[in-house]
Structures are given as structure tokens and as C-alpha cells.
Amino acid sequence: MRTAMPRNANWTREELIVAYNLYCKLPFGRLHNRNPEIISLANLIGRTPSAVAWKLSNFAHLDPSLQSRGIVGATHGSRRDKEIWDEFAQDWERLSFESERLLAQMEGKPIEQATNIDVSDLPPGMERETIIRTRVNQGFFRSTVLAAYSSKCCITGLGNPEMLNASHIVPWSIDIKNRVNPRNGLCLNALHDRAFDRGLLTITPDYTVKLSKSINGLQDGEAILNLFLRYDGQKVALPDKFLPDTRFIEYHNQHIFRE
């Protein structure tokens, strides 16, 4: 825990980065000073929970997904808040890892311990560091996407995190720049994640479920009816933050979805 900062002391770049990390990982409705995660970060950086909650609300003010719903957040953010927002948007891969590294450093823990990733199967050397970075970023992406959807599948509403995936709209292997961008993610249950990944269903640019003809043709199966056909043409539940980018959705429609 750091010594408490003087009232109204300017936020450092490092403090803003870890605050943005927490903004990404919390549902919008939990950005308040009673949240244990906000209290924990406040203790870590020597700020009050109210100061941290206010800073997260500053970030919310910059979020176009919230603006489109008429939610403005706190309106007195600083120029540096926007700089951090833009810096993440331009390089999610680097900034997400840096934010996790800074948090681990502040906690006095190795990053793999702070982020709860298993490294027991990894070899020593540069390959190990590369895999650790990848796993840390995958964990950040999952946490951010699930938080945006309040840990509920956007198609079915299933709310068991153990059965949910943070699904890439444009696959991880294809778009390196947007691997960790939460606007390239959907929260899907494991079954519909598999179907989405295989192109058996997609989400249209107006956020509607569309099934492949290979599923639509299977009219005789009760499981197909209950698990897939009932959702065809249905609007998905949209996230509180990080609305899926229609550019990524159009890519999935054109290059992965099997008409």
C-alpha cells in the first residue's frame, strides 16, 4: 500500500493505466466507491476509493458505447485521461500487458502470480516470456469482454462464467492489432462460441443472430430447434461498454460465416 496522496494530487501515467485496467474489468454498474475491487486499487495506489471511482467515471465519459445510450459518466476528466484512453485504443496488445505488469509490480508479485496464469508447463528463456505475455493478454481480454456483458451470453443470457467464452469476432490469428481489443469480442456460451468460430452462425451489423443454411436445414432435431433455430433473427444483448465494432462483424459475415 502506498502512502496516501495529497488531495487533488495529479494522477501519474502509471496510476491512470492501472485505473483504466480496472475500468475495463468492471461492469458499468459497479463503478462506485463501495466496490471491494475499487477499494483494493485505491489502497494500492494511495488514493481514496471515491477518487478511484470518480476516475473510472471519467473514463466512462469517453466510452462511445455509453454515449450512444445517453450515459455520460463524469464530465470533468483531464486531458491525460483521454490520452490513456486513446493509447489503449491504438495498441491494446501492448497497453493491456503493461497495465497488468504495473499492477503486479505494485502488488510485489510476479506477473504470472498476480494474473493467476499457470506457467508450470513452460520452458525457460525467451519463449517462456512470449507465452506468458500471450496468456496475460488472453486473460485480460476475457475479463474485459465478460465484464462488458455482465458475464452473460449475448445470445442466450446464460450467466455461468465457467460456461462462457470471450469470443474473438476476427480470429486471434488473423488480426494481431486487435487481438486484445474488447470491441473485437462477444460473450458467448461454449456451444455458440464453437458455432460462431466455425461459421455456423454470425451476428449481423445490426446485432442480429443469423444462422447458416447448414443449421437452418436441420428442422427435425429438437436440440437444433431449442439450441439454435429459436435464436435465428433475434437481437443479441449488447454490452454496457465496448460495443462490437461493425468492421469486425462485417469481416466475420464475409470471411467466416458459411451462408
Radius of gyration, in angstroms, nearest whole number: 20 Å
Number of strands: 4
Shape: globular
Low-confidence stretches: none
Strand content: 5-15%
Order of strands in the sheet with the most strands? 1-2
Largest sheet: 2 strands, antiparallel
**Number of helices, where a helix is a run of at least 4 consecutive DSSP H or I residues:** 12
Helix content: 40-55%
Order of helices and strands: HHHHHHHHEEHEEHHH
State the distance separating the first and last CA atoms: 55 Å
What do you see in this structure?
- The strands form two sheets. The chain has a two-stranded antiparallel ribbon with strand order 1-2. Strands 3-4 form a two-stranded antiparallel sheet.
- It has twelve helices and four strands, in the order ααααααααββαββααα.
- The model has no long low-confidence stretch (mean pLDDT 90).
- It folds into two domains: 13-147, no CATH class; 149-255, no CATH class.
- Helix content is 48%, strand content 6%.
- The protein is mainly alpha-helical.
- A hairpin with a 5-residue loop joins β3 and β4 (209-211).
- The N and C termini lie far apart (55 Å).
- The radius of gyration is 20 Å and the shape is globular.
- α1 crosses α3 (49-62) and α6 (92-107) crosses α8 (126-148).
